[in-house]
Write a structure and sequence with these properties.
The complex is a heterodimer of chains A (509) and B (322).
Chain A (H helix, E strand, L loop, with lengths): L1 E12 L2 E12 L3 E5 L6 H8 L7 E6 L2 E3 L4 H6 L2 E4 L11 H6 L13 H14 L15 H14 L4 E5 L7 H16 L3 E5 L3 H7 L2 E6 L2 E7 L5 H9 L22 E8 L3 E8 L4 E5 L6 H8 L7 E6 L2 E2 L5 H6 L2 E4 L3 H5 L6 H13 L5 H14 L16 H13 L5 E5 L7 H16 L3 E5 L3 H7 L2 E6 L2 E7 L4 H9 L18
Parallel strand pairs in A: 3-8, 3-9, 6-7, 7-8, 13-18, 13-19, 16-17, 17-18
Antiparallel strand pairs in A: 1-2, 1-4, 4-5, 9-10, 11-12, 11-14, 14-15, 19-20
Helix pairs in contact in A: 4-5, 8-17, 12-13, 12-14, 14-15
Chain B lengths: L7 H19 L13 H26 L7 H17 L5 H25 L4 H20 L4 E2 H4 L11 H22 L1 H11 L1 H6 L4 H27 L1 E2 L7 H11 L11 H17 L10 H22 L5
Antiparallel strand pairs in B: 1-2
The chains are: A alpha/beta (509), B mainly alpha (322).
């Protein structure tokens, strides 16, 4: 008996195919995992299941008949509950009101049966062993309790199918155990669970079958008892088209003062005690899954956020800056992950975007002639395909937009370049160009810290790879390490020791 | 159950009481003369004029709790007033039918706001700014600058259901505030309004009919502005297109002073009404202080800021981390 079957689902966002021809079934009463790298299409699939996205083609079969879920309301009415990755709680309402939001117990005209809801909430909280008053305001609860509250909601609605999207990202090990006991109870009661996670040990612990998605396609569905951890990792990272990246530039010799040295930098709860150093001309890859703390680390290094403690030196001089502006003056720049939101001003022309950092960090007077000259040089040097520098960035492809974001910082001649997902959502040719730019900068002596979820990219570009998981650097690998090894470090919470292959280059302390 | 001290309205009541005590002390008259501020007639006057703001503030609070904003109430007050007044005085319609027509006009404005926000997807600020202009404009077009003498057209000594005319709109205000307070705290509709204001995405995922509730909120706000407009026409005894100019900002300020958060999800209907009383007392008492005439806008502005800052500090002390 199938609880839900996905049949030939296609879903695109603009030119990006998030899902293509996804077909597999979840059996009633099983715990079924969906795993894959970032961007493999897991969240899109869950959103279709929860009724908040609609497939372009293909159908969803529930209990034997194809259905069109118009809205989350519709999905809930069919017993499908989603525990969302982001905190989908109502901070302004009480615990009871959160549990029953949207499905309140009511008498005629929608009169709320408050005392009955409170009693049931108290029972649910007791069942979940949550030491929380049903009248407490949710904005006073710790994050883990808010997450478990989502499970309480699903229990209150008596969902027959519970989909969980990375439910443990903000939970401690003990809280995760707690959640798993509850999920185990639920499957014994016949509830079907669809579990999306990066964390393979959790998946192996909970789920009967595992479906692997890669680049929006189903690789295969595996039986837990007939597959190994490594086989799943291989299925997640294996690529049909080899990425073509230029050969890395020869690394700096590593002698002398490192360009950037970071020691014991901590910002709770995002990351803790991160230490490393980068020599001039060296490219260090920083790999980690979403939520591992890598973006937060970069934002702290560049002064968007402030660390709880830790220190940093640039060319041996202590650096302590309070803002990206101060960091840029010290020669440290960040090319952020989200070029739409953080990288470009879409109301300004390319020219103005390109000279913005130079103008604001150096306090230069804007001279139109030099602006035109500088921006034209940048466009030519970085091989940006644009008809003119007087247009706005929305007319450009993603790849060229990304090159503009890079170029505007590179105009400053940075000493340390922090890159967050520099090739996310760009086409292969632009990716190749961007790799070329990064290598060229390194050859000129810039220290580069490259954060990417694109493992082949990290492997191709970096001289060394740091792997982050749950806010800590878990290991350091040499260039040319194999994918499965990096992925294991990034996914396995227990058992794997911090691996150090290179004893004397830089330091992971 | 909530602890008594967690009830946000109590602090608004305390501020109102302090304010009344201050003016009672400051304006204390010489021996043998009656108190210019602290007397029943003046109290009724404050209630009468505050209730025009107060009735509309009930709606404004609901919109703000839902995470929106409504700039149209002032204009809707004027428009519904001139429609009802014009039909009653010049059209010789009955009292009930001209009032009904005024209310329908207000509701039509609310429908327009709701449609622009929910179906067209305009930001509430822009949509209601537009509706504000349209309503005010129509009021001017309809009246061609004239005013309708409603009090002259009413039969002498007329009263609604035996209630003296001056008492009508304060009683309406209290009644509507209680009804909507109960709707907001004890009914599913109110819970949905709070949920949408707290987290609209989560509300959608929880199966709340978000669009429908949002539409209802702007309808309620417009309808209450209509009630307020008709009350104003009766209180002032005339219908005029330039009545209630700028009321929308005072109404929003009242809701905020009464505990509503412009980021949505927090606030109360009763608090908003108490907020209008805080401003009503200020508007009544300040002109009685010699030399304060030019200071009243300044003082009103300062009061808004001081009260809201105090509220935020209190929230922080309670350990709320949103």
């Amino acid at each position: 008996m199938e609880a839900v079957a996905f049949q030939h689902l296609d879903k695109s966002f603009g030119a990006v195919a998030a899902l293509s021809d996804v077909t597999f079934a979840v059996r009633a009463g099983e715990a079924h995992a969906i795993v894959g790298e970032n961007g493999a299409g897991k969240s899109t699939l869950l959103n279709i299941l929860a009724g908040s996205l609609h497939p372009d083609r293909g159908s969803l079969v529930l209990g034997g008949a194809p259905v069109a879920l118009a809205s989350p309301r519709n999905a809930l009415a069919r017993g499908i509950g989603l525990v969302h990755q982001e905190m989908l709680a109502f901070p302004n309402l009480s615990v009871t009101a959160n549990i029953f939001a949207g499905r309140e117990l009511t008498s005629r005209f929608g009169w709320l049966r408050e005392s009955e809801m409170r009693t049931r909430a108290r029972d649910l909280l007791a069942r979940l062993q949550l030491p929380v008053s049903p009248d407490a305001s949710v904005d006073t609860l710790p994050v883990a309790h808010r997450q478990l509250l989502q499970v309480a909601r699903a229990l209150a609605f008596e969902c027959r199918l519970l989909a969980l999207d990375e439910p443990t990202t903000s939970l401690t090990a003990a809280e995760t155990d707690h959640l798993f006991r509850i999920l185990g109870d639920l499957t014994r009661d016949g509830v079907t669970i669809v579990y999306v996670s990066h964390r393979l040990p959790e998946v192996f612990r909970l789920c009967d079958r595992i479906t692997v998605l890669r680049d929006g396609r189903v690789v295969d569905t595996f039986l837990r008892d007939a597959v190994s951890h490594d086989a799943i990792v291989q299925a997640m990272v294996g690529r049909s088209i080899p990425d073509r990246a230029p050969a890395p530039a020869p690394a700096a010799d590593g002698s002398g003062e490192p360009r950037l040295r970071v020691k014991g930098v901590t910002r709770r709860p995002c990351f803790e005690d991160v230490s490393f150093s980068i020599a001039p001309g060296e490219i260090v890859g920083l790999f980690g899954l979403v939520g591992s703390g890598r973006t937060e680390l970069l934002e702290t290094l560049v002064g968007v956020q402030h660390p709880d403690r830790g220190s940093m030196t640039i060319d041996g001089r202590p650096a302590r800056w309070r803002s990206p502006r101060a960091a840029a003056r010290a020669g440290v720049v960040l090319v952020p992950e989200d070029r739409q939101r953080q990288g470009l001003c879409f109301n300004l022309t390319l020219r103005h975007n390109l000279v913005l950092p130079a103008a604001t960090t150096r306090g230069a007077i804007l001279v139109r002639g030099s602006e035109v000259g500088t921006s034209a040089t940048l466009v030519r040097d970085w091989r940006i395909t644009a008809p003119s520098t007087a247009i706005t960035p929305d007319a450009l492809s993603g790849g060229n937009q990304q090159k503009i974001v890079l170029a505007k910082w590179l105009a400053l001649g940075p000493r340390v370049l922090l890159l967050d997902e520099p090739t996310k959502g760009v086409d292969v040719a632009a990716k190749y160009d961007i790799h070329g730019i990064v290598l060229e900068l390194a050859a000129r002596g810039t220290a580069v810290l490259l954060v990417s979820s694109d493992l082949p990219e990290v492997l191709a570009l970096a001289d060394r790879i740091l792997v982050m998981r749950e806010g800590r650097v878990r290991g350091e690998l040499a260039a040319g390490a194999d994918e499965a090894r990096v992925m294991r470090l990034a996914t396995a919470p227990d058992s794997v020791r911090s691996v150090r292959l290179q004893a004397d280059r830089g330091a992971v302390s | 159950m909530k602890k008594l001290w967690d009830v946000r309205e109590l602090s608004t009541i305390a501020i109102l009481a302090l304010e009344i005590a201050f003016f009672a002390w400051y304006l204390w008259p010489g021996e043998g003369r009656s108190h210019p501020f602290l007397n029943p007639a003046n109290g009724l006057l404050i209630l009468k004029y505050s209730s025009i703001y107060g009735i509309a503030a009930v709606g404004a609070a609901i919109v703000i709790i839902c995470g929106g904003i409504d700039l149209a109430p002032g204009a809707i007050i004027a428009l519904s007033g001139v429609v009802a007044g014009g039909l009653f005085v010049n059209g010789h319609w009955g009292l009930a039918s001209s009032t009904g027509a005024g209310m329908l006009t207000a509701i039509a404005c609310g429908l327009l706001s709701a449609a622009l926000i929910v179906f067209v997807g305009l930001p509430p600020f822009i949509a209601t700014l537009g509706v504000m202009g349209i309503a005010r404009g129509v009021a001017f077009i309809v009246t061609e600058g004239r005013y309708f003498d409603v009090s002259g057209a009413l039969p002498p000594g007329w009263r609604l259901a035996g209630i003296p005319l001056d008492w009508t709109s304060p009683i309406l205000m209290v009644g509507l505030a209680l009804v909507f307070q109960i709707l907001m705290t004890r009914f599913q509709w109110g819970r949905a309004v709070f949920a949408i204001g707290g987290n609209a995405v989560a509300a959608r995922f929880s199966g709340v009919p978000v669009g429908l509730v949002q539409a209802s909120v702007y309808l309620v706000s417009a309808a209450l502005a209509g009630v307020s407009g008709i009350a104003l026409t009766i209180v002032q005894g005339q219908g005029k297109a330039d009545l209630a100019m700028g009321y929308e900002l005072d109404i929003i300020a009242s809701a905020v002073v009464g505990g509503a958060s412009l980021s949505g999800g927090r606030g109360s209907v009763v608090g908003a009404v108490l907020g209008t009383l805080i401003f009503g007392v200020l508007r009544n008492a300040l002109p009685q202080i010699s030399g304060a005439t030019f200071y009243d806008r300044l003082i009103v502005g300062l009061v808004v800021i001081v009260i809201v800052v105090m509220d935020q500090l209190l929230q922080r002390r309670k350990g709320v981390h949103p």
